[in-house]
Amino acid sequence: MKASQFxxxxxxxxxxxxEVTSHKLMMRAGFIKRISAGIYNxxxxxxxxxxxxxxxIRDEMNRAGAIELLMPVVQxxxxxxxxGRFQKYGPELLRVKDRHDRDFVIxxxxxxxxxxxxxxxxxxxxxxxxxxxxxxxKFRDERRPRFGVMRGRxxxxxxxxxxxxxxxxxxxxxxxxxxxxxxxxxxxxLSFRAVAADNGSxxxxxxxxxxxxxxxxEDAIIYCPTSDYAANIEMAEAVAPSAGRAxxxxxxTKAPTPGKSTCEDVAQLLGVxxxxxxxxxxxxxxxxxxxxxxxxxxxxxxxxxxxxxxNEIKAGKLPGLKTGFRFATAAEIDAHFGCKxxxxxxxxxxxxxxxxxxxxxxxxxxxxxxxxxxxxxxxxVNWGRDVPEPDLVxxxxxxxxxDPSPDGKGVLAIQRGIEVGHVFLLGSYYSxxxxxxxxxxxGKPQLLQMGCYGIGVTxxxxxxxxxxxxxxxxxxxxTMAPFEVVLCPIGYDRSAEVxxxxxxxxxxxxxxxxxxxxxxRGERPGAMFADWELIGVPHxxxxxxxxxxxxxxxxxxxxxxxxxxIPAADVAAFVKAKLGS
Length: 581
Ligand SMILES: Nc1ncnc2c1ncn2[C@@H]1O[C@H](COP(=O)(O)OP(=O)(O)O)[C@@H](O)[C@H]1O
Ligand SMILES: [Mg+2]
What we know:
The chain has 581 residues and is α+β, with helices and mostly antiparallel strands.
């Protein structure tokens, strides 16, 4: 490829709305062009990277035995109604109507269409196992599209769906995908972790997110540096303190805390550690009658230590809260506690509430909590003595750095990550809803056991750049680079020798299968180098009159601080060796 026959469009400055490095660099390097919030044109240079990413993914998916097909972007609502997702999916699902006023969706994912194919095509146990995938445009009307292609509204995803005869076989298919994902991200030379993830309401048994480590990541990854434990914040278990509860040593005292409605303020006023305080959160659950009206409301008091935060995913798995909860209204709080938020606690309730206490709080003694009276807190509170033992003790908080690892092999640390892939054992959730069965050896219909596996193709560009850049621009891993090698002749338009040598090297590398670009634009060296450093081509060869007179060219790897002189005759072999091919 010659630059003159390609399209290169770089910018000195990133647009003001670009917050993170990857978004800035992708805009400056001319990879993407914004057309609407979260919707981008993939410009020629960016599309080359996307195609490289897709090639690695295809290669590893095919190697793992998955079979490529292509499902439509526009999908009939009927299929989505069968699983209830046409109603249940939030505003992220773009619902459209055709000219006949029929409902359609722009697919955010393809479980329904895939399950529909499977129930028609996979009729016998002999057809199993199967794993189908496609690389297709997705649309999710994200509330906060941001960071360029990292959280777009339109984006490209590889999604795969496995079908097996039983849970054990499905679990094997899952392991195969887990291994394939590991190879994919290793080939892209990314630093990543596979973390145990929550599988939401589906109730499958296993789920892992593949997280690329980056400070700008939207997710918190919890891991143990001295073991292989890793989980996302929703999942990571906060174990009970090993020490247990100490005996009471203080008397229950009502302390004035005027205007101090947060644990931080109370701890500061009383001159005690924040760890001595307890935070109250009030939830409510509604039981509906046959007509769908609220028949009964239960109010819940959840207690976590003052320096901890409630984990709503964990709370949502508890008996009584599983079917859905909301935060209580001001009126409900007043009716049960006789006080406004900021001074709430478990002592002296006006009406009974269900009390759920975090494991850490259950092990506290002589603690501080609201007195259910504005401007007052209790100190020296003790379970069993001042307040009945809680109805339920459970893990309801987010872990914090320094907590013991649930595997008992060290303490937890936290780092940020970008979710680039997700593997998910679905079980029979979709096959049940859509009656997708196969006939077993005895001719008996059985539900297909499913897994689904996503990779954010376009998000990977952003994630890779977050990990691989410097002040001059992007540094692509070779497998993702728009070009593997760039030839930068100095004076291509002026020197016949330079032109001849550059053309010859270009041809030689092309014939050897190297993805090389010859910059024949005749740009000044400074501008030319700046462009390719910004674009992030990993290998650069500079040809000049002066060098060629000595039989030399210059090679510089994008991460190297200095160029090195290479005999012109050896350069093709040298570059090939650098590419590891
Ligand atoms: N808005 C988005 N923009 C870009 N990529 C996305 C977006 N949403 C999801 N992805 C990618 O698709 C993969 C599979 O999506 P999925 O796990 O269904 O999404 P989520 O975790 O947002 O529910 C994610 O791991 C991520 O890499
Ligand atoms: Mg996910």
